[in-house]
Design goal:
This protein is α+β, with helices and mostly antiparallel strands. The radius of gyration is 18 Å and the shape is globular. A hairpin with a 5-residue loop joins strand 4 and strand 5. Strands 1, 2, 3, 4, 5, 6, 7, 8, 9, 10 and 11 form an 11-stranded antiparallel sheet that branches. The longest helix has 18 residues. The chain contains 6 helices and 11 strands.
Length: about 240
């Protein structure tokens, strides 16, 4: 694995929900931000990447939340590259509170993309050197996320979107019944991106709900206006005690 990169984030007012707990979408924003800052610290900025006609496209996330954090908490976010394989990259995120307790752990899988050809491109050898990946790191197995489509639809919700509104996680949360959002919190979340949204318009979220004792299990599929599959998601919500 590469060296661990760390950054402190403060949970601000815009980052919290009605319970003054850090929102799940804010955790996602912290992870996205630190990934870019980690790359930039190694001289691999977004501008340089785009100048070479390449970019990273996230394929999937697996996320577990172990405990909540609250307004004005200082969180230590850590990230590192677990492995590169051809055009895949596996990145790990861990978030700790001020008591050094693990708040969240996540793993993402991303493609290295040639923008001109619109297809995956082999990760350059100097990336391995930049991240100090060993030969053993290159042989780590990559498990692609497999998610099931909802076999029934308990909830259907439509969202009108603009380019600035593309946030799959927020759509899922906003599609959930209020009593779940109020009385439960996300403890596990998986997302697999199938296709990019090409234009403005609308999307539809289909959700299957299953109550299991103190938890709610959900399966989701996001469709565009032409009924193309954009993303599959799965989440677990635990009842707040």
């Amino acid at each position: 694995m590469s060296k661990v990169f760390k950054k402190i984030y403060e949970v601000g007012y815009r980052d919290v929900n009605l319970r003054r707990e850090c929102k799940f979408s804010s955790y996602m924003e912290f992870m996205s931000d630190i990934a870019f800052k980690h790359d930039a610290s190694l001289g691999l900025s977004i501008a340089d990447l785009l100048e070479s006609n390449h970019t990273w496209v996230v394929f999937s996330y697996k996320i577990k939340v172990f405990k909540p954090s609250n307004y004005q908490d200082e969180l230590r976010v850590e990230t590192y590259i677990k492995t590169f394989r051809r055009y895949f990259a596996v990145r790990v995120f861990e978030i700790y509170n001020e008591d050094n307790e693990l708040v969240l752990q996540s793993e993402s899988l991303a493609f290295f993309i040639d923008i001109i050809k619109s297809k995956p491109s082999t990760i350059p050898e100097y990336y391995y050197n930049k991240y100090h990946l060993s030969k053993e790191d290159k042989n780590i197995k990559i498990d692609k996320l497999k998610l099931e489509k909802p076999e029934k639809v308990d909830i259907e919700k439509k969202f009108n979107i603009r380019y600035t509104d593309i946030d799959f996680v927020k759509w899922i949360i906003h599609s959930m019944p209020f009593e779940i959002v109020k009385d439960y919190r996300i403890c596990e979340f998986k997302i697999k991106y199938e296709k990019q949204i090409k234009d403005q318009g609308s999307i539809i979220v289909h959700t299957k709900l299953e109550y299991k004792e103190e938890k709610v299990h959900t399966n989701h599929i996001i469709l565009d206006k032409e009924n193309n599959e954009l993303s599959l998601l799965e989440s677990y919500w635990e009842k707040i005690k």
